[in-house]
């Protein structure tokens, strides 16, 4: 009696997806210095260079440089604040409005069937850039996940980031 079937625990309906390659983000603390924050630097350049889709009054939307799926966007505050609770009412309202608009645009442009929408608050919670608030908008489609990233440590993104950004930006502004 030495196999996992003899370990204590209550069976549940969860499928476990073991991703040890993600451990580097947890252990190495790959947090940029404040003067190197990519979310502070992005709006300083052109939309193309910063991968920006839309610039609002208190927040902006840009493509994720390391997307989970094609069309993965981030809604960021211009201010360098770490926590959602530190936002102003205007920032929180615009972040919500831009997230909603981003979902509408992705449904139109890429026929997204669903979304993962969320924020990782703090390094402990898995935020890649913990000191600058950002919300993920990840489009999802039926059967869009597979084991290629785990087995081959490769994520297949079917379209170039610049092309997707231009298409999303055009649809965003065509409203």
TrEMBL record:
Domain HIT: 38-147
Keyword Nucleotide-binding: yes
SUPFAM superfamilies in the cross-refs: HIT-like (SSF54197)
Transmembrane domains' residue ranges: none
Species in which this protein is naturally found: freshwater metagenome
InterPro entries the UniProt entry points to: AP-4-A_phosphorylase (IPR052908), FHIT (IPR039383), HIT-like (IPR011146), HIT-like_sf (IPR036265)
Keywords: Nucleotide-binding
Record's protein name: Unannotated protein
GO molecular function, one term: catalytic activity
A Pfam family assignment: HIT
């Amino acid at each position: 009696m030495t196999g996992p079937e003899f370990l204590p625990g209550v069976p549940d309906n969860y499928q476990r997806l073991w991703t040890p390659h993600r451990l580097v983000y947890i252990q190495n603390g790959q947090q940029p210095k404040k003067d190197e924050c990519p979310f502070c630097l992005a709006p300083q350049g052109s939309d193309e260079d910063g991968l920006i889709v839309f610039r609002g009054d208190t927040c902006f939307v840009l493509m994720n440089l390391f997307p989970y799926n094609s069309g993965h966007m981030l809604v960021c505050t211009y201010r360098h604040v770490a926590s959602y609770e530190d936002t102003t009412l205007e920032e929180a309202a615009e972040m919500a409005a831009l997230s909603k608009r981003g979902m509408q645009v992705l449904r139109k442009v890429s026929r997204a069937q669903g979304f993962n929408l969320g924020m990782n608050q703090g390094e402990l919670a898995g935020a890649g850039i913990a000191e600058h608030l950002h919300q993920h908008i990840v489009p999802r489609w039926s059967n869009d996940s597979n084991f290629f990233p785990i087995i081959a440590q490769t994520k297949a993104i079917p379209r170039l980031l610049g092309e997707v950004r231009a298409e999303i930006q055009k649809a965003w502004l065509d409203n």
